[in-house]
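assembly run, all chains below
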Amino acid sequence: MATNITPRTKDYNQWYLDVINAAGMADYSPVRGCMVIKPHGYAVWEGLQRELDARFKATGHVNAYFPLFIPMSFLAKEAKHVEGFAMECAVVTHSGLEPDGKGGLKPKGEIEEPLIVRPTSETIIGHTYAQWVQSWRDLPILVNQWANVVRWEMRTRLFLRTMEFLWQEGHTAHETWEEAEAETRRMLDVYADVAENVLAIPVHRGRKSPAERFAGADDTYCIEAMMQDGKALQAGTSHNLGQNFSKAFDIKFQTRDQKVAHVWTTSWGVSTRLIGALIMTHSDDDGLVLPPKVAPVLAAIVPIYRKDDEKAAVLAYAKELLARLVGADAVARAEAVCGGREILEVPYGSTGQRVVLDLRDGLRPPDKFFHWEQRGVPVRLEVGPKDLANRAVMAVTRTPRSKNVVSADAITPAWFDDALATAQKMLFERAVAFRAAQTRACDDYAAFKSAIEEKPGFYAMHWDGTKETEAKIKEETKATIRCIPLADVIDGADGPISMKTPGTDPVSGKPSEGRVLFARAY
RNA sequence: CGGGGCGUAGCUCAGCCUGGCUAGAGCGUCGGUUUUGGGAGCCGAAAGUCGCAGGUUCAAAUCCUGUCGCCCCGACCA
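ok done. output:
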């Protein structure tokens, strides 16, 4: 039906880009690998921020802000960290500009110590925490920051991998390893909660193999999601950094028993990449599909009329329906704010999400239907003369796809909330079922090689725990260990798969403690 | 960073191979008109430094060199 969106089966990558474009989520920028996040895309991010931030606060964290620029020397202090990030750092070497004599400009003064633009903030925060921490009474430190970071990527993709992206990074410091480990796991659970209950994206909680670990971490936990093309996507990570950074930055404290010790730190982050995950999990060939909890526009009311007398009556009726959902006061306030704008936007509840009345004159009803549909609006109310005559309305839901005539009296916040809750639930259940259908146990390496090609998805295989085997599989199949799941059992296409039962690595023939999830990944 | 493809109106593209009138089409936009329950019809109008910079030539969207950006594959990737 949509003429501006390439079907998934024809070209999945193009479909992804088309959906973003049709939904007005983002634009390319003049700078390679960077993007402009448009209002509709940013509103989704704001929804995510709202949900995440509330959970961070509820688990005792506070927000702060650390600098964009980091002295180059800081990065060198933690060996693994510099190894992992050196190649993707943007480096500031000059200050000021001067004419280049050819009508353009060139950098002017070279600065003494080059600055790097943060690719992540462990180092500068480590430096700061060393000053903040004196005694065990100063611990724990539970700080989060909302920020942008820059990583000089070779190949970029809107939302999934851009050179600059928005994220939050939590950085905590603790007295003991146990506390740091508990924090790492607690925030992993927060991420899984938001992914599943807000974004309706089912995720596997697990640990990364040593090869996939964060540069500088003792242990990296992650949530892994499955996209509609069968590729896995790392949706969030939580790291137990041990004492690596506290030793590098000398974050010491006086312990309860009068000794001096290094603190134990953690860090954890999710980024605008989650928006990419959201798009690729739920959207279809008709455009964006958003779970109601983060949909910036929850419902669009589209009036249908021919003549002026009809128009006046239909619009009055449409506003009455709008008021039934959001309240007459809210409509009046919105009209005052919107002024002459053709789309009347009224807040629904306190989340910043909105119900809109599409008053645009230039577009005919079908154009408006497509417009809101492609932007992932969960509910649409079509209101025309027939409905007015019957005191009814055509209620159209994106998930499930349905069109029903509903009486005007039935249009209530309770009805609306129910429709939204149904969509939220269905999206999650559908994604859970899809993921299970893409998940299989495999005990034969030759079979795995062809299966990963023909039926991309998660493959639960035994692994001997060595990096040699992992590297061989990656080399030969492009599949990597996405995670070592925490769960004992996960659902697969052929029923539950026991992950913790010992077995044999199909590649090396060596014994394995349990299964791990392999997949090709974004 | 290596290989391939692309860059011409807001969008999608034709024209380039084989240089030559005033650079075209469809969609969209604007005005008018009839329309309006899943992407309407007719009439008229506006809109492009041909990505950018050099070079060759009497003449460059077209040929050459460089450069920037986008897409795909590879390498790389918390």
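The mean pLDDT of chain A is 92.

Chain A has three domains: 37-68+118-282, 295-419, 439-519.

not gonna interpret more than that til we talk
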